[in-house]
Amino acid sequence: MEVHPPDWVKEKKIIPLVQIGLKRAPDLADVPLLFELASNDMDRQVLTFLSADTGISRALVTTPDTPPERVAALRRAFDATMRDPEFLADADKSQMDIVP
Fold first, then answer.
1. Which one, 2, 21, 32, 52, has least CB within 10 Å?
2. Cα 25 to the center of its chain, rounded Å
3. What does the DSSP assignment read for 37-97?
4. How far apart are CA 34 and CA 51, in angstroms?
5. Residues of the chain above pLDDT 70, percent
6. Rounded to whole angstroms, what are the CA distances from 49 to 22, 42, 43, 53, 55?
7. CB 71 within 8 Å of CB 61
8. % of the chain exceeding 90 in pLDDT
9. Is residue 48 within 8 Å of 55, Cβ to Cβ?
10. Residues 65-88: pLDDT tens digits?
11. pLDDT at 57
């Protein structure tokens, strides 16, 4: 989730120094990942571990005893929402990134 107006990076009002994650954002291709700044393998492993949870930054979970058919229904509903034109239009209007 962005904490600044989305045009600030494009307009160079702010300059990101580092990204936390396992892969670079396409619009920040020249900004290094945190673990890339490590000076040795041990530090790189620690920084990679700390960066790994950003890939599931907003996890959606349920209890372990949820029936498989309910899990399947929840997954279908999520997938449908991620393709819903009205949802995507609202997200775009709110300047939210939707990357399921």
1. 2
2. 9
3. G-SSHHHHHHHHHHHHGGGGTT-----TT--HHHHHHHHHHHHHHHH-HHHHHHHHHTT--
4. 7
5. 89
6. 9, 11, 10, 8, 11
7. no
8. 48
9. no
10. 999 999 999 999 999 999 999 999
11. 61
Residue type, 57: S
Length of the chain counted residue by residue: 100
Copy the structure tokens of residue 30: 């020249």
CB 57 within 8 A of CB 45: no
Query: Using alpha carbons only, how large is the chain's radius of gyration in Å?
Result: 18
What is the torsional sign of CA 52, 55, 57, 60? Answer: negative
pTM of the model: 0.53
Contact indicator for 34, 18 with CB cutoff of 8 Å? yes
